[in-house]
């Protein structure tokens, strides 16, 4: 056991206590789930000597004292690359000041590449989170899940960040300057390596407005999921893939997606109950669009007129749209576009396929 490299109990849901003697596993490199509540006699001492850790997940950290958090000495775990700080969901109602002090004392080393913070009750992020002179300059992946903070951290100046996921931050209304951060003397570009962003389950998020000087030059993918107030994406982004689910139909107006209209190649729309041809006219502005997938949009009867604009469209998939029946606009597209694939499934009102579409259609 002393030569063990990984101890993974992520799927052991009934386990609520760590075994004693883990401090003897000095060669262990991965502890993706370490339960601090009901832990052995001194959980801090168990972790102190584990200098080879590359991955560590601390669970139920609200059960720790501020003193214990400091004594774990995360800053001295120089090989640590992946850190998860996970509070219990019940901790969301705990004292936000104490919660911040706790995270302040769980400051990781500067070599960290992946950071996950889950169910954090503080109103502000810990002092070591990125700012104008970020401590964690090697971060490539960040996940912020069910965090109670009232503002976003300044992540835009992280030089190696490639993926960002923000979920359940219900205090956030707009994405803007605070997330981009202040430009440094050496660079005016924000998010200069970012490739993917996910916003999900943010009940008050309304927009990502256009901002002067803000850039995401390599951003490829944006997902907006279960954000019921999100109506504006005017920030100019070079994304090629956009996924939206359970969002207002207003977003798909021309003004709503103006910031991505020229670059977008793939669009996935799901569970947007009020989506209709009239409310999705923004689709006609997507001149580079090659692929569109629409599923679970039960008010949609047809696509908006597209013959003049969607000249790059190659693939259309429509699944589980109970009122969809009109293929007229797709017929117009075949004359000018490069439409090669049409899949229709779970659309009971489509009773036949026009002759011009039969050679490219999968109909279920």
UniProtKB/TrEMBL annotation:
Coiled-coil ranges (or none): none
Which Gene3D superfamilies does the record cross-reference, listed alphabetically? Answer: Ribonuclease Inhibitor
One Pfam family here: LRR_R13L1-DRL21
Source taxon at top rank: Eukaryota
Ranges for domain R13L1/DRL21-like LRR repeat region come to 46-169
Q: Which InterPro entries match?
A: LRR_dom_sf, LRR_R13L1-DRL21
Write down the PANTHER family for this protein, in alphabetical order: LEUCINE-RICH REPEAT-CONTAINING PROTEIN 57, OS12G0131701 PROTEIN
Q: What is this protein called?
A: R13L1/DRL21-like LRR repeat region domain-containing protein
* Gene name of the encoded protein: ga22594
């Amino acid at each position: 056991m002393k030569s063990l490299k990984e101890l993974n109990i992520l799927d052991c849901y009934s386990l609520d206590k760590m075994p004693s003697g883990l401090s003897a596993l000095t060669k262990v490199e991965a502890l993706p789930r370490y339960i601090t509540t009901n832990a052995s006699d001194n959980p801090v001492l168990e972790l102190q000597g584990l200098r080879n850790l590359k991955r560590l997940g601390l669970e139920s950290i609200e059960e720790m004292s501020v003193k214990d958090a400091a004594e774990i000495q995360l800053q001295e775990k120089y090989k640590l690359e992946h850190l998860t700080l996970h509070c219990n969901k019940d901790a969301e109602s705990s004292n936000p000041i104490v919660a911040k002090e706790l995270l302040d004392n769980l400051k990781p080393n500067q070599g960290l590449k992946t950071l996950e913070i889950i169910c954090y009750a503080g109103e502000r992020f810990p002092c070591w989170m990125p700012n104008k002179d970020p401590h964690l300059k090697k971060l490539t992946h960040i996940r912020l899940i069910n965090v109670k903070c009232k503002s976003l951290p300044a992540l835009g100046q992280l030089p190696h960040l490639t993926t960002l996921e923000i979920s359940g931050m219900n205090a956030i209304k707009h994405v803007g300057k605070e997330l981009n951060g202040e430009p440094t003397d050496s660079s005016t570009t924000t998010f200069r390596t970012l490739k993917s962003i996910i916003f999900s389950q943010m009940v008050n998020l309304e927009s990502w407005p256009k901002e002067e000087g803000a850039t995401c030059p390599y951003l490829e993918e944006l997902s907006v999921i279960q954000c019921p107030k999100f109506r504006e994406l005017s920030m100019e982004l070079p994304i090629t893939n956009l996924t939206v689910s359970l969002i207002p139909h207003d977003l798909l107006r021309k003004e709503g997606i103006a910031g991505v209209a020229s670059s977008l190649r793939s669009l996935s729309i799901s569970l947007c109950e009020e989506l209709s041809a009239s409310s999705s006219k923004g689709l006609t502005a997507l001149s580079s669009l090659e692929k569109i997938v629409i599923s679970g949009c039960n008010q949609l009867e047809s696509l908006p007129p597209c013959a003049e604009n969607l000249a790059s469209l190659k693939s259309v998939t429509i699944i589980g749209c109970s009122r969809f029946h009109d293929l007229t606009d797709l017929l117009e597209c075949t004359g000018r576009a490069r439409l090669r694939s049409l899949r229709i499934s779970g659309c009971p009102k489509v009773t036949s396929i026009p002759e011009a579409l039969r050679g490219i259609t999968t109909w279920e």
